[in-house]
Each structure stands twice: as structure tokens, then as C-alpha cells.
């Protein structure tokens, strides 16, 4: 008798409140760039090829990321490559609280050229995969939202200042002087 060549999976925990974070292989096997914005850090995981395809004997043949930054005016993440010795697969994980795009419609620009990409959704981020040509220098991922340049505290100070100016303008003799 032959064993069946298929298997089924189902939820084995009835209590859905008993949910544990899944172990993400990308967080274990990938490289990580730490972005610091308004004294808060964000981990941007990235890599080349598949998770287990990196050959340590040929590591010098893989691209090297130099720098990553948020460009608030463009609502984008700018990635500067140190070197790209040959056309390669490059992927990065985009946390929703760092950058997001309406209907997951990001725009990817590699060295000034609009480029297609693959996108996979995870619970708290998207994995964006792309082919980067040899000698790529700049990669820009444009969304509809990026982490604000200014945090909540400076915005609160600005709001309080504006309310104070309006209050003084209404109650000051200087502004209420009438000329007949």
C-alpha cells in the first residue's frame, strides 16, 4: 500500500489569543541596516539571492550596501550601493511604520530608471525583491508615506505656539487698536 503524497495542515490551537510571533528566517539569515530617525531605530533587513544561497567562499562577488536613508520630501528610502560586481537579486524588508504605499503600489527606481519588482506581504512589512544591474549605484523605493522627519514633540510645540499667537493677537491692545 502506497502512502498518500499529500498532507493537510490546520490550526491546532482553538484559542486564537494564544498567538506567538513566527520565527522569520529573514531576520536570522539576512544582513540588517539600522535606520535612526528622531531617536528611534528601525531595522531594515536585506539580502542577496535566497536566504540559504549565499556562498561564503564567493562573498566578494555579492553586492555591498553602503548607505540607506529616508528622504521625507520624496516619501522614499534611498539606498546607495558600494559595489555591485554583477547583476544580482536584491531584496529588502520594508516595515509598515517606516514606509508604506497606498494599495502596496511602490515605485522602484534604480539609477534613474523605473524598475519592476516582486512584493510579498508579511504581518508587519513587505518584502520587496528586484534585479539590480551590474554597477548599480542608487536604489530608491518610493511610497505614499515615510516615517516623519519631525516627531510628535516638535509638532506639539508648533501647535502650542500657534495657539498662543492667536490668543495674544485676539487679546492684545496692539491688535485691537482702532483708527477713526
What is this structure, in a nutshell?
The chain is of the alpha+beta class and 180 residues long.
Describe this structure as you would to a colleague.
By secondary structure, this protein is of the alpha+beta class. The chain folds into 2 domains: 25-148; 150-180, no CATH class. It is 16% helix and 38% strand. The protein contains 3 helices and 12 strands; from the N terminus they run αββββββββββββαα. The protein has helices spanning 25-29, 152-171, 173-176; strands at 31-37, 40-48, 64-71, 76-83, 88-95, 99-100, 107-110, 113-115, 118-121, 125-132, 138-142, 145-146. The strands form 3 sheets. It has a 5-stranded antiparallel β-sheet with strand order 1-2-5-10-9. A 5-stranded antiparallel β-sheet has the order 3-4-11-7-8, with no helix packed on it. The chain has a two-stranded antiparallel sheet with strand order 6-12. A hairpin with a 4-residue loop joins β3 and β4 (76-83). The longest helix has 20 residues, at 152-171. It is elongated, with a radius of gyration of 24 Å. The chain starts with 24 loop residues before the first helix and ends with a helix. The relative contact order is 0.15.
Number of domains: 2
Number of strands: 12
Number of helices: 3
Instruction: Assess the beta-strand content as a share of residues.
Output: 35-45%
- Give, in spatial order, the strands making up the sheet with the most strands: 1-2-5-10-9
Biggest β-sheet, characterized? 5 strands, antiparallel
Determine the mean pLDDT: 77
Q: pLDDT under 50 segments (min length 5)?
A: 4-23
Q: Round the Cα radius of gyration to an integer and report it.
A: 24 Å
Helix and strand composition category: alpha+beta
C-alpha geometry = elongated
N- and C-termini, Cα separation: 108 Å
Order of helices and strands: HEEEEEEEEEEEEHH
Estimate percent helicity. 10-25%
Amino acid at each position: 500500500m502506497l502512502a498518500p503524497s499529500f498532507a493537510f495542515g490546520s490550526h491546532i490551537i482553538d484559542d486564537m489569543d494564544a498567538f506567538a510571533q513566527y520565527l522569520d528566517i529573514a531576520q536570522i539569515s539576512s544582513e540588517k541596516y539600522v535606520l535612526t530617525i528622531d531617536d528611534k531605530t528601525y531595522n531594515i533587513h536585506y539580502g542577496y539571492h535566497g536566504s540559504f544561497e549565499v556562498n561564503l567562499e564567493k562573498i566578494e562577488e555579492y553586492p555591498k550596501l553602503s548607505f540607506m536613508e529616508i528622504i521625507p520630501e520624496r516619501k522614499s528610502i534611498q539606498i546607495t550601493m558600494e559595489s555591485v560586481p554583477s547583476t544580482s537579486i536584491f531584496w529588502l524588508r520594508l516595515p509598515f511604520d517606516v514606509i508604506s504605499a497606498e494599495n502596496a503600489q511602490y515605485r522602484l527606481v534604480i539609477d534613474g530608471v523605473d524598475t519592476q519588482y516582486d512584493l510579498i506581504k508579511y504581518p508587519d512589512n513587505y518584502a520587496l525583491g528586484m534585479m539590480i544591474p551590474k554597477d548599480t549605484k542608487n536604489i530608491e523605493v518610493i511610497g505614499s508615506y515615510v516615517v516623519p522627519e519631525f516627531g510628535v514633540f516638535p509638532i506639539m510645540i508648533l501647535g502650542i505656539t500657534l495657539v498662543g499667537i492667536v490668543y495674544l493677537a485676539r487679546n492684545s491692545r496692539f491688535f485691537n487698536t482702532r483708527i477713526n
